[in-house]
Amino acid sequence: MSDSNMAVATAGAHQRRPLAGAGSSHLGEKAIKVFLALCAAFSVVVTTGIVISLVVPTVRFFGEITLSEFLFGTVWQPAFANPSFGVLPIVVGTVIVVVTALAVAIPVGLASAIYLSEYASSGVRKVIKPILEVLEGVPTVAIGLFAFFFMRPLAESLFPWFPWATPFSIGVAGVAVGLLIVPLVASVAEDAMRSVPAGLREGAYALGASKMRVSLRVVFPAAISGIIAGIVLGTSRAIGETMVVLIAAGAGNPNLTFNWFSSAQTMTAYIGGTATGDISQGTIVYDTIFAVGTLLFSMTLVMNIIAIRLVRRFREVYE
User: Fold this and answer.
1) What are phi and psi of 263, to 5 degrees?
2) Are 288 and 78 spatial neighbours (Cβ–Cβ below 8 Å)?
3) Which of 26, 195, 232, 258 is deepest in the core (most CB within 10 A)?
4) pLDDT at position 99
5) What is the reported pLDDT for 6?
6) At 159, which helix (H) or strand (E)?
7) Per-residue pLDDT at 7
8) Beta strands at 84-85 and 76-77: parallel, antiparallel or unpaired
9) Which of the four pLDDT bands, split at 50, 70 and 90, describes residue 316?
10) Which residues contact 157 (CB under 8 A, 6 or more apart)?
11) How far is CA 298 from CA 52, 54, 259, 304, in A?
12) How many Å apart are CA 169 and CA 166, to the nearest integer?
């Protein structure tokens, strides 16, 4: 064997020699995988426990009340002497709050995301983005008090010709919930838009497109899956919001109404108000909490399934 071949063989032997610390690194990766798998399994167990805790009392509830009476009844008075179990009034209240909140959060949140992603300088983004993330953590009770003591009187002062019947307003509560979820929608949408490959923007600018056209015709469609995910998260937050609607919309008025200026009760407000009240376990009133919770869970699940299908339908993948 020549000297050059011996040198190559010696170098190959060195390359096959395991690196110092490689074994411990491999064990560390295995430990991390096991830890992550345990976290995922824990999440599944917790979710399963929540579903079981909802389903068991719900089945007991529907042993006494028919599904058609529950879903299509227009009077919700479970604790009255002559009880009625039509959930439609509080479902309508929930829908009004969610639609109003999305009408506020989607345009404001997406406009904020476009500005931060495409127009703001790096210095402005470094200031505003952390503020948005901090606003996501504002306690909802503070938003509820702000809506009740400031927004509701201000709205009546600005628009006195509207029929403000009570100190509560389902519309003002919806606007307050919209303001609550604006930071969430804006933050997630801005992250999705900034993850769009720079080559797409540069190609559009090379063709003479303006910044607005690049933002709306190139970046926005490319980030649509992340934007939809942000809107879905915001919608889920609006559906499940309790404290704001409990304070600003009025918790004790489950009348079937579409009046934006009157008080109304939502599903979460009913659950929150009744669960913290003086009721006995095992009664029909107690089971209504879980029946309404199961309906709320089902509505959120259906909305998420539809959103996942939309994301898969419009998702664009770049290499």
Assistant:
1) -80, 155
2) yes
3) 232
4) 93
5) 47
6) none
7) 47
8) antiparallel
9) low
10) none
11) 13, 11, 26, 10
12) 7
What mean pLDDT comes out for the span 110-126?
A: 90
Asked whether the whole model's pTM tops 0.70, one would answer: yes
Tokens coding 256: 């079937």
Q: Which of 96, 43, 53 is nearest to 290 (CA)?
A: 53
DSSP 291: H
d(CA 156, CA 133): 31
pLDDT, average across residues 223-235: 87
Residue 42 has pLDDT above 80, yes or no: yes
Average of per-residue pLDDT across 21-43:
83
| Rg of the chain in Å (alpha carbons) | 27
Task: Note whether 146 and 180 are within 8 A (CB).
Answer: no
Tokens 């983005």 map to which residue?
129
Q: Return the HEC string of 31-48.
A: HHHHHHHHHHHHHHHHHH
- Say what the pLDDT of residue 106 is: 93
Per DSSP (E only), the strands in the chain are 76-77, 84-85
Neighbouring CB atoms inside 10 A of 142's CB total 12
CA-CA-CA-CA torsion sign (164, 166, 168, 169):
negative
More confident residue, 183 or 80: 183
